[in-house]
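Today's session is about reading a structure prediction critically. Students often jump straight to the picture, but the first step is always the sequence itself: look for stretches that repeat, for charged clusters, for runs of hydrophobic residues. Only then move on to the predicted structure, which in these notes is written as discrete structure tokens rather than atom positions. Here is the chain we will use throughout the hour.
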Amino acid sequence: MPTVSVIMAVYNAQDTIVRAVRSVLDQTHTDLELLLVDDASSDGSVATVQAHLAERGGDERVRYLAHPSNRRAAAARNTGVSAATGDFVAFVDSDDEMLPTYLETLVGALDEGVDVVVGNIVYVRPDGSRRERHPAVTGDFPGPRAAELGLLDKITPFTCDKLLRRSLYDGVRYPEGIINEDFLTNPVLAAGARTVRVVDAPVYLYHVRADSVTWGSIPPVSELDTAERYLRDALLSGAGVTPAMRAAVDHATVFLTLSSAQRALLKDPATAHDRQVVRDCRRRIRLVTLVRLARVAPVTAAGGVLLKVAPPAYAWLYRRHVRASYGQDA
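Below is the predicted structure for this chain, in token form.
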């Protein structure tokens, strides 16, 4: 049984998948399995990997799983988790890379009682320059507190910078059919952990691409309703819910709404659908919620107010942020 199962959702990634696969198989920590979950690719992604592995002389650590039809990333991750045999799971996207010491760093940070270890993402801009995202907090946190910090964007919302004990997925799966599934599920997984450890060490290369799901997709606003229900059912439906957790869930719903509006605001030329998404997002954000958030998350609260009263100003500021942080024209 390997220490770590690395899961890669694959969909039409022929141009980048060999780089991603190589980054896993060349890890300095070698006790792993790589699960490739083909989500009904039509471009020969898996054949490209198989040809690469043949050139390497094969690698029995690689396992192939396949969906008969495209079900999106969350479903592919769920398929991988269900098939995993490692004590821990990690994830890599098919257009990104693990740094060579990813697993060595995160496995090395494990202790008795630590169920999740979080490292740093390094953004690779289109011009090749890099920017490392350092954590807002470091150290050890009880699971429920780590969940709150994740919902407040103090612990990153990504799946790809984390090592997670596989048993945390008992009864938990990524919500299918929507994007932002990692932002939603990571706090739920954290809430079930004994301890979450955040270390300030680079582990993952995130290649910024305009055509990726994160940057280019504008989901229907109905997905925000699905996301909010998922969080409220998972984190606010039991006994003993704290005011801090309620505030954190409020923040997450506003944060996701702003993210959807941002994608639509940056479209040029904007379609009728894009303009409707912005209007729906503005209506969805309630001023009473922003008032409650002003103390715990003033930047998000201010962003919500600005989007409601002056969308062009919000779009201008966000374009400047994207250009400065990611080297991406917006």
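Discussion point for the tutorial: Residues 243-265 form the longest helix (23 residues).
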